[in-house]
What does this fold into?
Amino acid sequence: MTEMPKIFIDGEYGTTGLGIRQRLADLPIELCSVPIEHRHDIDKRLQMMAAVDLAVLCLPDEASREAVALVEMMESKRPRILDASTAFRTDPEWVYGFAELDPGQERKIAKADKVANPGCYSSGAIALLHPLVKAGIIPVDYPLTINAVSGYSGGGKKLIAVYEQEKNAPPFELYALDLNHKHLPEICHYCDLVQEPVFVPSVGNFAQGMIVSIPLHVNLLNGTVKQLKTCLKEHYFQRKNIVFVEDGLTRLPANQLAFTDRMELRVHSNNRNDQVILTASLDNLGKGASGAAIQNIKLMFGI
Ligand SMILES: NC(=O)C1=CN([C@@H]2O[C@H](COP(=O)(O)OP(=O)(O)OC[C@H]3O[C@@H](n4cnc5c(N)ncnc54)[C@H](OP(=O)(O)O)[C@@H]3O)[C@@H](O)[C@H]2O)C=CC1
Ligand SMILES: CC(=O)N[C@@H](CCC(=O)OP(=O)(O)O)C(=O)O
It folds into this structure.
């Protein structure tokens, strides 16, 4: 009998880490753990990393950078790494863990030693924009606006505490109003955009779920509403985790896909076909984080 792959989740007691741990329970892998009281102990974590085939990092950016630098200095066998943070998503030495990006991306992930899991908002934005820009329908210099709302679990343990423990948590708030959100470089990079979109993220008083929505004026595109739909339908044909849906919805609840690992894409248009809103619905902790990580782990071990 062949041995099961060994995996250590650094940050396993955080929001994304816990989500991955729960999903791994169904897979043929051996999960190696550091006790909760030692979760910040770098020596114990490095010892564990030296003993496993894959280290999944579910840490803040700085802690991820530190852990990766230490792994790279290891003289013993190094584990492969899957990083959930923003730190390496546009780094050319890392493979971007968005399996549906292009044909061939799954193969790259399967062979990679270092995989960067995509950001939650970025996953929705890239799923919509990448195929449309690549097909030339959305010009690379289109003045895009990306609106998005996330459940509060998107901000990890700290934001969950604000929403679940403080009496005066807002029902809804805009944030990142300095127009410098950490997902913008990733979105521009993987959509080949030359004009940075205006990104308007927000958070609502619900735990999980996300909508990314992108309004478009059809007269500024190189294509029709029908061509937008056909392009997305063909790009995601027979994909399990991302589906293009044509159901004519005119309302879209933000928690529609909460507790799933799927993403749904839609093209909403008016009856003049001159305005469009593209939407991506997902769970920030599902396809936006832990669900995508599991997709990558399965690819990396051929499960
Ligand atoms: N939440 C989400 O929807 C998404 C999150 N991500 C990314 O995943 C990563 C983790 O986020 P999330 O799970 O939300 O965050 P959480 O704050 O919920 O969890 C982070 C975990 O890492 C631990 N930790 C923090 N600093 C260190 C350190 N220096 N050494 C060891 N452990 C440390 C924390 O410990 P302690 O228990 O002491 O706080 C906590 O257990 C982030 O990079 C985030 O950007 C990606 C996609 C979506
Ligand atoms: C609601 C909320 O705060 N969301 C986070 C994004 C989620 C996150 O931190 O992780 P990823 O970058 O890996 O997606 C934010 O805007 O910073």
